[in-house]
Design goal:
heterodimer; A: two-stranded antiparallel sheet; 2 strands; about 55% helix; globular; B: mainly alpha
Amino acid sequence: MEGNIIINIDVMLAKRKMSVTQLADKVGITLTNMSILKTGKAKAIKLSTLARLCEVLECQPGDILEYVTKK
Amino acid sequence: MEQNKLAKWLKVIVAGIAVCGLFIYVFLIPGFGKAIVSDNPEFAYCYQPWLIFISSTAIPCYAALFFAWKIFSNIEIDNSFSRENARYLKWISWLAAGDAAYFFLGNIVLLFLGMNHPGIILYSLIVVFAGVAISVAAATLSHLVLKAAILQEESDLTV
């Protein structure tokens, strides 16, 4: 059974009281790429991007990455 | 040279080839045929069938030029490695192969109709070989562009 990795940044954004635009700016990626990440269209994420996301959101990768099985 | 300028020059070349082709098909070939007929009046009956046959081989050539124009238009808007371009190259490959096969078969048919000579068929094999070579080159390019397009898509969706 195949599954997907989804990226949940909404919860962390709410906790840190940050907007998507501010997050994109601090992480150093474009709003388009941030949208690709949020909507689950991303095919890959660089470890450097993941590291910067965790640094800005002050969290662990497991807090924003979730594995879901395809039903 | 910038990609934009390169693409514009490529389009100029395609337009140039189209104009040269028009000149060859409308003036040179009929003129050449008329010269042969005036020197050898016994071949007068061959002139029209050959003219129609050679003129018909222009259709796939111009179709291929049209696809080449579309490819260069995509390159101009920085869309070089796309599935669309791979498809257009595949079309060019099929057109070149089809034209080469049609040219060869046409020569054989004209031979059976008594309007050709085995020596002419031997020379026509050069044209057939050129067509096959273009077909293989276009098919290879199509395959490589498709692979590059897949890599580009993955790269575009890598954050």
